[in-house]
Amino acid sequence: MVDVTAPRTSCATCSISGPTPLARFRRDSLAWPPMARQELWRDRGRCNRARRARDAAYDGRFFTCVRTTRIYCRPVCRSALARTDNVFFVPSTAEAERLGFRPCLRCRPDAAPGTAAWRGTAATVARGLRLIGTGFLDSHRVSALASRLGVSARHLTRLFIQHVGLSPAAVAGTRRVQAAKRLTSDTDRPLTQIAFEAGFRSVRRFNDAFRRTYKQPPSRFRQSRRASTIQPDG
Fold it and tell me: Which domains, from first to last, does the chain contain?
């Protein structure tokens, strides 16, 4: 069983390299220190440029209050941009609401990164990632995972896309193919056995996923890995 909490996955002959979904999720969750969040809103020019560009890098770091509508938004809000002289910036949703502004129904600033609602959904995603790491989706549907976490399947998928960038099924698929690659490379077990140990429900699905990810069948991948470890006589 492969552990999705491992910090990195890489291989000279494969196309997957970079942080795992859980590692990337943890990194992004901690991307902005509290002080940076507190001070940025004071820089009106920088905030206004981020707002006009709808720059996702600033999401949750400040909020835009629109004087004419008495609504506050996230920097990434897709609504029509308010005039610059009609907006000002605050560091938190609490401050916006203290001043009498209402949250935008389109961008939902109450669920922006760093807010209480966001931290709650982040915890749900983290629990889901841990369950997927144990192979839960190898024998259960996404609906069963969602029920275990106390949310609907549709909402769980939405949370995974928001926090991880992948659906629960895609995360599980990545876990399976990485486990299969590791077993194929590091053991002499039959490929049929590896397919089921990695969590695939059939050998065909194993072969298809392996070809799609590594651009070659598992048998050829194993041969090339073994050939690369043979030292020439000298």
Answer: 34-108 (3.40.10.10), 115-228 (1.10.10.60)
